[in-house]
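Incident log, structure service

09:12 report received: a user says their structure output differs between two submissions of the same chain.
09:20 pulled the input from the user's history:
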Amino acid sequence: MGPRIHLCLSTTLLLGALAVETLPAQTTSPVAYVYVARPTHLDGFAASSTGRLHPVPGSPFSGIAVSHLSVTNKFLFGAGDDNQSLFSYALASNGSVRKVGQINAHAYPPDGNDCYSVGPTQVDFARKTLYNNDWNCDGDSQYIQSYRIESSGQLTFLKNTETVSNQFTMSNPVVLGNDQYLYVTANYSLVGNPGGQIEALKRNSDGTLDVANGYIPMPPYPSSYKVFAPYNVLATDPTNHVAMEMVPQDAVTGSDDGPVVIASFTAHSDGNLTTTNTLAQMVRPTVIAHVMSISPTGKLLAVGGGPSGTSLGFQIMHFNGGSPITKYSGVLQSKYLFRQFGWDKHNHLYALSSNYLFVYTVTPTSIQQAPGSPYSIPEAASLIVLCLP
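09:34 re-ran on a clean worker, output below:
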């Protein structure tokens, strides 16, 4: 019997690197399966206890053009490059994949308009529902589509839920670790208004979403001349906490006016988010986050740099539940823009850049690059990690 598969959600990315196609086969029981999407195929890896990667049988899988990967303990999902399809793949016990389903997300237009983009996608922690971020091509509306994951791996459409936040500056949605709510943020600065808001969508027993609180205000800034605005990057821990990047803005002009900070928020039973972190306690990252991810232990936060040349690389922070986040590492791999992160339950962080996959062994007291890292993966687009016991 192959290894028992567990979903590992930590929600929800060098010269001389060894090409993945030449890696030796796995000879010991893996601790995780790692999947990376490219424009023409999908790479699948088995990770050893040291963090070294080995191709799973059949990898690379040709003819698979997907991105925005999501995973359960049995199935892998991806948004197709046709910008309308959601694909389902069954996972074998050895980590190999086989297509089992396809659904046209545009067959369920929320407002009669089938011009919507597809993805990102995210699976809930119960592994029963897939959520698809559905953006209008004109940029003026966003819906979250809910799909039930059938025992065959096929997706069944359930509902479109319209978000009420400003569509032009909205974050990708994240599911709360206890599966009770889904959150998005909106930053108003791009449309000339200062500040922003958080929006909570309640998860129903059937996996569908309803707006619970369309306007959770940002915490007040100590000065009346400024307001906090979300920088539209969120991450959730395994329970009821949300890490959020914020930036001070001029209360009149809406222009950014101060260093970016990251605060920890606590979710309440009604979906409201609050923070006890003061401005002086909020951590100031060296990189401006483009992506964030919290480890399965809830103790570590990975922060990946954005498109600015001064914001490349990534950092590791100590995540402390609702208490203030604290600095840990300096900037790692400062030459690269990081797209996505993944974690397994054996202290491995998988950090995906546009052309390389880095693997680190990270604990609250040590950070070390794993043997074999980095791995050359040209045109890498999306990463997902499936934890094994």
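09:41 both user submissions now match this output. Likely a transient worker issue. Closing.
09:42 reviewer note: The domain at 6-75+88-97+174-387 is CATH 2.130.10 (Methylamine Dehydrogenase; Chain H). Residues 236 and 242 are 5 Å apart (CA to CA).
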